[in-house]
Amino acid sequence: MPASLSERLAQPGLIVAPGVYDMVSAKIADRAGFDALYMTGFGVVASHLGYPDAGLATYSDMVGRVRQIAEGVATPLIADGDTGYGGLLNVDHTVRGYEAAGAQAIQLEDQEFPKKCGHTPSRRVIPLDEAAHKIRVAAAARSSKAFKIIARTDARTAHGLDEALRRGEAFLKAGADILFIESPETEEEMRRIGSTFDAPLLANMVEGGRTPILSRSELESLGYKIAIYPVAGLLAATAALSSLYGHLRSTGSSAAWSGELAAFSDFVRMIGFERVWDFEKRNAV
């Protein structure tokens, strides 16, 4: 069994967590041997609902996907909890629900509702006192301190790095376990974040986003403990599907497509057909 997230945080080295958004992506990532998986709100809202990550998903939409993924993988799951889906009572309910669903950490942010993807424009944050109170409620709601509270601030884009750092300090005092300063725009800003805090830091590596994509060694040297890649898998899958479907539309066949297909036999085993076949053999009449 993989180490729990709490155990892994106490060990040296960067935790690399790929973004998962459905059960196929989750099972592939689970088999790859990562230390943690990241259930991306951006990806879940896009794949499950076909909507942009703009506050349109509800707690019910998301907690069901948390439970489904957590039950289907062995790797510890970090789950995006957006703003907590409402006021303080909603935050309490969301933390309890995500923990009961099997996640090992929840990410909560300080945006106004409706929230927006952290690498898109026009994000606004709630007052600092209100945001810190949410983190205090979240920390008190969990049944075990092994369930980690990741506090995210989106203040950098609209209010500058100093305000984001100020909020980070307040969130740690309020009980956050892991700090997520969203959307630093240079490596130097990331270095300043790493030198400011004596706490586990999360880096959000979004291809095409505001933050530079750095190597494992670079992130470790800057003081980061976790690196999430929330959209890399989704973008790769989208590119592959676009290419294949375009080829099918133009030629009428998958023959001679230049991309790579997983072996059908490998896929049916990954998705669990062997258990079905064994069950049918044991219960043949």
TrEMBL record:
Cited InterPro entries: ICL/PEPM, Pyrv/PenolPyrv_kinase-like_dom, Pyrv_kinase-like_dom_sf
Gene Ontology MF terms in the entry: oxo-acid-lyase activity
Annotated protein name in UniProt: Carboxyvinyl-carboxyphosphonate phosphorylmutase
Lineage, highest ranks first: Bacteria, Pseudomonadati, Pseudomonadota, Alphaproteobacteria, Hyphomicrobiales
Listed transmembrane segments: none
One Pfam family named in its UniProt record: PEP_mutase
CDD domains: ICL_PEPM
